[in-house]
Specification:
alpha/beta; Immunoglobulin-like; four-stranded mixed beta sheet; 8 strands; disordered N terminus
């Protein structure tokens, strides 16, 4: 486990909590008063040292410059939120690590509150308030003021978790979802809530493991475990936390917690020495997953999915020397050992959504070249479930029925439809995922009684996996009488078309 040791020593370095300088007090009046009447641009310095930015918050006027000086013994990479895309202020990104003793200067040309982080260690964060030259106040968006873009929404999530807790943050998400102005996907939002919850946890503020943490395909645990393993890379600590999750949420919660462990032990961003080296990127995570779960394939695969999802994201974005060939999207997986291929194909399959641009009709041509039937079934199951994130709020999902029918036959057709239904429960409004699923089954797109029966059976199976039995019982009467018998399925009339074969 040679590659793991340097990774652990880097991410485990201590964090210091420091007071802000007087010039950047949170009292808005004090900050802005010090800026009034300033003539010409000024240059400010932020030093990276002792695992923090000094100062971590600063106020300036548009046109001013900030120079980041690296006083650490390792490289840093200050960049705009969010990690890893830096899209809120894309130009605020040096594009490469700053070595020890080096510096980088950025001139602010846009007003706003710009949070930033060290791209090489996202637990190191800061914030810059850029004011208009004639303005005495920052321009802040609010949820009550209408549409809230991605940055604004992330700010609201962060503040809500800190001040009111994670359940309140999910309530905020639900309200924004209802308004039709949700700027982030369900899973990404849950991931962000998990990140912010970990910051509280690190400060000794515990949180309740409630049903809300299972929303949006358990994205909460993916974000939470990433932070936990950066600061405390002891796998025993992570496993103990996962055991608590299982006590509260059962097997599905545990599975997603194990995925988070694999994610947390795979460097994002990667060590510059392994850029472009797919095997080098996954090696530390692979070794840790084998160490923890090598004798239990099911748990090993869950951990490995967390490993492979990291380079799959790099390849999809064309970063760190990786890319996806549109003609052969699974090229990087083909030479992986057989016991790793299920995780690799499963994590690269979602990237087909970007290639297909929401059109499922070409999907059969991509799976036809996959020789292993188990992998082929996995991809047919995953792709429509991911694509549904684009359309979950739409009133018409007929294209999923039609594309699966036209592109596949027999069992593959059912798997394709089943993946579409899974998409409602992965991306739909928390606790209300069943509503579009039932509407999907009631639509006129189904041509035969057998097709419609399958839809209701699979929708109810997903409900039994995601909801309490009491909730499922309350939903049963919402289905037509002819299909209500499938709700609890006590006679076993419906089984999943995808049997999740082991490797």
């Amino acid at each position: 486990m040679k590659r793991i040791r340097p990774l652990l020593s880097r991410v485990a370095r201590p964090r210091l909590l420091l007071a802000f300088a007087a010039a950047v007090l949170l009292c808005a009046g004090g900050v802005y008063a010090s800026l009034r009447g300033t003539e010409g641009p000024r240059e400010y310095t932020i030093e990276a040292k002792e695992g923090s930015f000094f100062p971590s918050k600063i106020a300036l006027i548009v046109g001013d410059k900030v120079t980041f000086k690296n006083l650490e013994s390792h490289s840093i990479w200050p960049a705009s939120d969010p990690h890893p895309t830096h899209e809120f202020l894309a130009a605020f990104d040096p594009g490469a690590p700053i070595p020890p003793g080096g510096s980088w200067t950025y001139k602010f040309s846009e007003t706003g509150t710009w949070r930033f982080h060290d791209h090489l260690d996202v637990t190191v964060q800061g914030e810059i308030h850029a004011l208009g030259r004639t303005s005495e106040k920052t321009v802040k968006k609010s949820a009550s003021g209408g549409y809230c873009d991605g940055k604004c929404f992330d700010d609201l999530v962060k503040e809500t978790v800190k001040e009111k807790g994670i359940d309140a943050a999910y309530a905020l998400f639900q309200e924004t979802y209802d308004s039709g102005n949700l700027p982030r996907s369900c899973h990404w939002t849950a991931h962000k809530i998990g990140e912010e919850a970990y910051h509280l946890f690190k400060e000794g503020k515990d949180f309740a493991i409630t049903q809300a943490t299972s929303y949006c395909a358990y994205g909460f645990y993916h974000g939470f475990l990433e932070g936990l393993l950066r600061d405390n890379p002891d796998p025993a600590y992570a496993l103990t936390f996962c055991d608590k999750v299982e006590e509260k949420l059962g097997r599905l919660g545990l599975q997603n917690c194990y995925h988070g462990i694999g994610h947390g032990f795979t460097e994002d961003p990667p060590d510059p020495k392994v850029e472009g080296d797919f095997e080098g990127m996954i090696e530390p995570g692979i070794k840790m997953c084998e160490f923890l779960f090598g004798k239990d394939f099911n748990n090993l695969n869950l951990c490995l999915t967390g490993v492979y999802t990291v380079p799959a994201g790099f390849a999809s974005d064309g970063t760190y020397g990786l890319s996806i060939d549109p003609k052969d999207p699974f090229a990087l997986c083909k030479d992986e050992p057989l016991r790793y291929k299920k995780a690799c194909y499963g994590e690269f399959a979602p990237k087909l959504d970007k290639i297909l641009e929401g059109d499922m009709s070409p999907l059969p041509s991509y799976v036809s070249s996959i020789d292993d039937d188990r992998l082929k079934r996995l991809v047919v199951w995953v792709v429509p479930s991911v694509m549904m994130s684009r359309d979950v709020t739409s009133a018409d999902h007929s294209k999923y029925v039609d594309s699966c029918r036209q592109g596949f036959e027999g069992r593959y057709r059912l798997i394709c439809w089943g993946g579409s239904i899974l998409g409602f429960f992965s991306h739909g409004k928390p606790e209300k995922e069943y509503e579009p699923a039932l509407a999907f089954c009631a639509s006129a797109s189904w041509k035969t009684e057998g097709e419609r029966t399958f839809c209701y059976g699979e929708a109810f199976r997903q409900m039994r996996q995601n909801y309490s039995i009491e909730k499922v019982k309350s939903i049963c009467p919402l289905a037509p009488k002819a299909y209500e018998r499938l709700c609890l399925d006590e006679k076993g009339e419906h089984t999943s078309p995808y049997d999740d074969p082991s490797f």
